[in-house]
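Predict the 3D structure for this chain.
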Amino acid sequence: MSQLTLVSPDERPIKPLVESALLERAKRLEAAIRQTEIRLTAFEKRYGLNTGEFLTRFAQNQYQHSDDYDDWIGESRMLDRLREKLNRLESITIVD
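Done. Predicted structure below.
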């Protein structure tokens, strides 16, 4: 478990400011996840298979490298990273 202590020279409470910043970051991550999912769906429709199946087949060398396939793989990895960041962010607890 990681902990962080924040100190402000201002007398006003900083908890609402920090909570607001975390919420805003979560909203941006959620928007990025939606956009990435849209791009993945476009690949899935174009090639007629879901991303998981594509990645499995690609790993088995059933497809040769192409710009489209590289982009598809990149979008899939991006989605994983975005979801991981959102999960980490949502697991943060602010203690008074």
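The chain has a mean pLDDT of 96.
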